[in-house]
Design a protein that fits this description.
118 residues; mainly beta; SH3 type barrels; 5-stranded antiparallel sheet; 4-stranded antiparallel sheet; 11 strands; elongated
């Protein structure tokens, strides 16, 4: 896993993602999001952290991404972050820690905001 800490922000008003290297927002130590001048953003912005892992196509995996995992049988799930650990919560309500999965079998197929029915 990569040790880079990156984020993307889902803008619920414009319905698009903003990625931290190209944006003008700050994240405070208590997790609040502020614009480049230090003014707080409102609740229309949802922060999502990069897991440090890429899928089989080299795409960065963030919280809220929808995944397909095909080691033996196909499973679909959502990437989540709890208690300092990234997990994939599968549709059957089980979960696996992302750091222990073979990412060569994992593919990002969307995210919960832009393609919630996938």
């Amino acid at each position: 896993m990569n040790s880079n800490i990156k984020f993307r922000v889902w803008d619920t008003v414009d319905e698009k993602h903003t990625y931290s290297p190209n944006s003008h927002f700050l994240i405070t130590l208590d997790g609040n999001i502020k614009d480049g001048r230090g003014c707080p953003y409102d609740e229309s912005y949802i922060l999502q952290q990069y897991s440090g892992v890429k899928d089989k196509n080299g795409k960065e995996i963030y919280e809220g991404d929808l995944t397909l995992y095909k080691p033996y049988r196909e499973q679909a799930g959502t990437v989540e972050f709890h208690s300092g650990i990234f997990f994939v919560e599968w549709l059957d309500q089980t979960e696996d820690e992302l750091g222990y999965m073979r990412t060569s079998d994992l593919e990002i197929v969307g995210n919960i905001y832009e393609s919630p029915t996938t």
